[in-house]
Design a protein that fits this description.
Distance between the termini of chain A: 86 Å
Oligomer: heterodimer
Largest sheet of chain B: none
Mean pLDDT of chain B: 90
Number of helices of chain A: 13
Number of helices of chain B: 20
Structural class of chain A: alpha/beta
Number of domains of chain A: 2
Helix content of chain A: 25-40%
Mean pLDDT of chain A: 90
Helix content of chain B: over 70%
Shape of chain A: elongated
Structural class of chain B: mainly alpha
Low-confidence stretches of chain B: none
């Protein structure tokens, strides 16, 4: 019976096997021959290095296990595979949380916080207290030689837009409220000058202070921060500087191509956005000399070379740098030191205008000397610390003033 | 090594296929054995010795059994020795810590032993070793004179780590003589892709829900959240384990082996008795043929019948893990099966079918709660929350989050528990128009399956959550 129904087999009867074999044989061959990179710009991390072979790694199983990580990191078309995953989840499964990014109804991209995220309020408060003590010590040190210190607290994008989380997502509310309340209560008790930009932003409740697809503020948010800082220095510290410039005194330029935001990067830039970046130049020009990490670099904004390329927040000052020095050679004006994470980048092209010499440090990368030594050497008239509210209790990086 | 890993898919599998099909027939078993030993050594090289010891012991005892077959007393003694040695291996590595803990708790002693790490897959390869000697004793399979064939039977990589438990009588002849064909290979590829997708697309995703719910503090739970957690686990364990079995069966078929099925859509069962005929069938039949029937099965007095049921389900629970949770889970099923047989089984058959399904799923889900919970206390606490015996709210934001974010995958999981795929396949085969039939079989089906395979790879590369549940056992 079987013989009767047996038909002549054709190659197309085995299409499945042929395609399967092509995939499992060609992917490793292509992986071997295509050039490997060390860093994934999308994932913002260093990719795995080849496993090290020795007796210990072999017997513990570590050697073989590391192969999995290495191959997964360097598989041919890795970004395409990950984009496919992201596309499927975003557009077919219609998920609002993909790759730890939450997509809000109005298109704001926010970080995902697990519902059972555990943070110990007491430890968190203790960390902020330690930070406040360190700030008090630094502020006293600056006071001693006649300088002025000011702490600028900036809400991070997910903090500013915390109400935009869909109802069923955890928005980190308790952590953020506790951070803000604890930090500024302590600074007030210690008589340290500060600006809480969260309160300032809330007064105007504008939609354009922050980027929707990046974790930073926009030019508008940075401009508001600049205004508050300059007014504080001029009015409260009594330093003789020009008041904050009005928007009319600036040439504000909108970069045509939509932004490549850091949140969207986690979605492999698959989230459609028309959000654009703004930058500004002073209408009334002044002479200046700008040195980045010891190298002359006159540009405040690093534009993409090709007109088709999309800008990122890195446009401001070319991204995070260990040290930037901007000299305007106007010795009648005070000197300033600004230190902080990437939130400093967008205010730097605005602030330098008001000082003789502006020095900017990012303590995450600056390793020549400690902050105290730096201040001792240059004795700036005003020291400005810019910190985002997710890091009020973080005593590392720009929260570690003694690190060399 | 995991089947759902980049190393397996893109290094191990192509290499083993290449090496298997290139040399002549004589080397095929040797190739499979070498790759199987490497497969095992990949994760834990030092435990390879444990498996090799098991292979050597079972090979020698198999030869002795064959030699002294005529002398029943000697044969029985050899068989007993084989059982003792195999049980000792699994007993030492899997149950010694548990035994000492219980002795200390009961007798208030403080016996300490060094922390023993369980070699991966020991429950599976030990049971296969036992199957080899018992089947030789029963003359259900010929003794293997070539030790490499015994080694291959026990260590063959598709079923080595998480089953199915392949009984020696099933593959005894295939080890020596089997025919590979492109049809078999294609069928194997189909099963492998389906298994991989079950694991990566469904099990891992719903597994995240289950893990997050079971790791949440009790105060953060709600009634619906616990139900979602346990339903997700119910889906996870099925798609994880049946996915692995599909991959194992598929891989076996690629190399010409035909393993018996391990799952047959268990969640469509209309009774717990039926469920255990459809769930982990290789374990169920192993205990039936090697424990339950030798004890007398149900052809004994009622007292002995209860004893037999108790022993089998106690052992089934214990086989899954050295913990009271698993033992209680096993006995729980022993009780329900007894009740079905003695009391309500015949009435159950007469009620409306949806009621039969609800009844069955209810007891399965409660069973999984005891299986998944870290402790008995947690299981009981969750049980109370599920049925409203606590102050917990009915719904909270975390439950809504899972419902909204995972709605499609939860629906897909529910649909995929139904036997739709074989039903569609049957319908396609019934299509009488040749051209349509060929179009579907040769083009539509491969494209869909390769599409699923590509999606699975994208999930694999994106995945950081990839555990196989049955590797624990």
């Amino acid at each position: 019976m079987k013989e009767k129904t047996k038909k002549v087999k054709k190659l197309s009867d085995y299409n499945l096997s042929i395609l399967f074999i092509i995939i499992i044989f060609f992917i490793p061959i292509l992986t071997k021959i295509h050039p490997h990179t060390d860093i994934s710009s999308f994932e913002n991390r260093t990719l795995a290095t080849p496993p090290i072979f020795n007796r210990e790694t072999l017997s513990s199983g570590e050697y073989f296990n590391n192969w999995e990580e290495y191959l997964s990191d360097h598989i041919v078309g890795r970004n395409r595979w990950l984009k496919l995953y992201t596309y499927l989840n975003m557009n077919i499964l219609r998920k609002n949380k993909i790759n730890d990014i939450v997509i809000s109804k109005d298109g704001t991209l926010l970080p995902f916080y697990a519902h059972n995220r555990i943070y110990d309020p007491e430890t968190h408060k203790a960390n902020i207290k330690k930070m406040a003590n360190n700030i008090e010590e630094l502020s006293s040190y600056v006071d001693e030689y006649g300088g002025k210190f000011c702490f600028i607290g900036i809400p991070e994008q997910s903090s500013y837009y915390r109400e935009r989380y869909p109802d069923y997502f955890y928005n980190n509310y308790e952590f953020l409220c506790s951070s803000e309340k604890t930090m500024f209560l302590l600074l007030r008790e210690k008589n340290i000058d500060f600006i809480n930009m969260n309160e300032e932003f809330k007064k105007e409740n504008r939609d354009d202070f922050y980027l929707k697809t990046d974790h930073h503020y926009s030019f508008r948010g940075a401009f508001k921060t600049y205004e508050k800082i300059i007014n504080k220095i001029k009015n409260d510290f009594g330093l003789d500087i020009q008041g904050a410039l009005d928007e009319n005194e600036m040439d504000i330029i909108t970069i045509e191509n939509p932004i490549l935001g850091s949140r969207n990067r986690q979605l492999y830039y698959l989230y459609p956005t028309s959000e654009k970046m703004e930058i500004a130049y002073h209408k009334e020009k002044i002479d200046y000399e700008k040195i980045d990490n010891g190298v002359k670099s006159p540009e405040f904004y690093h534009m993409e070379e090709s007109p088709d390329e999309r800008p990122s927040y890195g446009v401001f000052m070319g991204g995070d740098l260990a040290e930037t020095v901007i000299k305007t050679n106007r010795s009648n004006l005070p000197n300033a030191l600004i230190f902080g994470d990437s939130f400093t980048n967008a205010v730097e092209p605005l602030l330098y205008y008001h000082f003789n010499e502006t020095r900017i440090l990012d303590l995450r990368y600056y390793e020549d000397k400690s902050l105290y030594k730096y201040i001792e050497e240059y004795k700036p008239d005003v020291v400005i610390m810019i910190r985002d509210d997710l890091n009020y209790g973080n005593n590392e990086g720009n929260g570690n003033f003694n690190r060399k | 090594m995991l089947f759902s890993s980049v190393v397996f898919l893109f290094l191990f599998l192509p290499t083993v296929i290449f090496c298997y099909y290139i040399p002549g027939k004589k080397l095929k078993n040797t190739v499979l054995l070498i790759f199987s030993l490497f497969f095992y050594a990949y994760g834990e090289p030092k435990y390879l010795l444990v498996m090799l010891f098991s292979i050597v012991v079972n090979y020698i005892l198999g030869l002795l059994l064959d030699k002294y077959r005529a002398d029943n007393t000697k044969a029985k003694l050899i068989l007993a020795l084989a059982v003792i040695i195999n049980i000792s291996i699994i007993g030492y590595y899997k149950y010694a810590n548990f035994l000492v803990e219980n002795i200390n708790a009961v007798f208030k002693t403080s016996i300490t032993i060094k922390d023993i790490v369980m070699p991966i897959g020991i429950s599976f390869f030990t049971f296969q070793g036992l199957s080899y000697v018992i089947d030789i004793y029963r003359q259900n399979g010929k003794v293997q004179k070539n030790p490499l064939n015994v080694a291959l039977y026990i260590s063959f990589f598709p079923q080595l780590i998480a089953g199915p438990i392949v009984r020696y009588e099933t593959v005894a002849e295939q080890i020596n003589k089997r025919e590979e064909s492109l049809d078999d290979f294609t069928y194997g590829v189909e099963r492998f892709i389906l298994g991989l997708s079950k694991k990566l697309l469904i099990a891992n995703t719903v597994g995240l829900i289950a893990d997050e719910v079971f790791s949440a503090s009790t105060s953060d739970l709600s009634v619906l959240l616990v139900w979602l957690g346990i339903l997700s686990y119910t889906a996870q364990i099925y798609f994880d384990f049946s996915g692995y079995s599909d991959m194992a069966i598929g891989l076996g078929r690629m190399f010409g082996f035909e393993f018996l099925e391990n799952f047959n859509y268990p969640y469509i069962s209309k009774s717990i008795t039926e469920f255990w005929r459809r769930w982990h069938m290789s374990l169920g039949t192993w205990f039936r043929d090697y424990v339950y029937i030798p004890l007398g099965g149900n052809r004994v007095s009622k007292g002995k019948y209860f004893r037999n049921i108790f022993i089998v389900w106690f052992l089934t629970g214990l086989w899954h893990g050295a913990s009271w949770n698993f033992i209680i889970w096993g006995l729980y099923y022993g009780c329900i099966l007894t009740m079905e047989k003695l009391f309500w089984g015949k009435y159950l058959e007469k009620v409306w079918k949806p009621i039969q399904h609800i009844y069955t799923m209810f007891f399965i889900i409660i069973g999984w709660l005891f299986f998944r919970a870290e402790t008995l206390v947690q299981a009981l606490e969750y049980l109370k929350i599920m049925f409203g015996f606590t102050e917990h709210t009915f719904i909270n934001s975390q439950a809504i989050y899972y419902l909204k974010e995972y709605k499609f995958i939860l629906i897909l999981a529910a649909i995929a528990t139904l036997p739709l795929y074989p039903s569609i396949k049957r319908k396609v085969e019934e299509i009488s128009i040749d051209s349509a039939n060929i179009m579907i079989k040769n083009y539509v089906k491969p494209i869909i399956l390769i599409g699923i395979f590509i999606l699975s790879i994208s999930y694999l590369i994106n995945s950081t959550f990839n555990p196989f549940i049955y590797f624990r056992f």
